[in-house]
Amino acid sequence: MKNLAKIAAAALVAVWCMTGRAQATASVEYFHTAANIQWINSSGTAITRGDVVDVGDKYGIATTDIATNSAVGTLLLEGVYKFTLAMSNT
Fold it and tell me: How far apart are CA 44 and CA 52, in angstroms?
């Protein structure tokens, strides 16, 4: 909720900078927390719980196993995680 307030405040500052006065130009509706997202697996590879998943400009951690063929699963986007480093030649 704090992040939403920051976004709304930033939007209001942007309007003030462009117009020279503060005014609300649109209502803000809470959608969902950015701590996790529903992700559709179109990678062609099954995802295992705990896998790191590239979702474009960020990474998420799979909360459950996610099958292939457009299966949907939840990815965590916030938090601190402990990993075991896996070495690879690929």
Answer: 15
Side-chain-facing half-sphere of 31: CA atoms under 13 Å: 9
- pLDDT band at residue 76, thresholds of 50, 70 and 90? very high
pTM: 0.56
Q: What is the DSSP string of 10-75?
A: HHHHHHHHHHSS----S-------TTEEEEE--SSS-B-TT-EEE-SSSEEEESS-B-SSS-EEEE
Residue with tokens 């690879």: 88
Q: Is the dihedral of CA 11, 13, 15, 18 positive or negative?
A: negative
pLDDT tens-digit series, residues 22-69:
455 566 666 656 788 999 999 899 999 999 999 888 899 999 999 998
Strand ranges across the sheet with 59-62: 36-40, 72-76, 59-62, 52-54
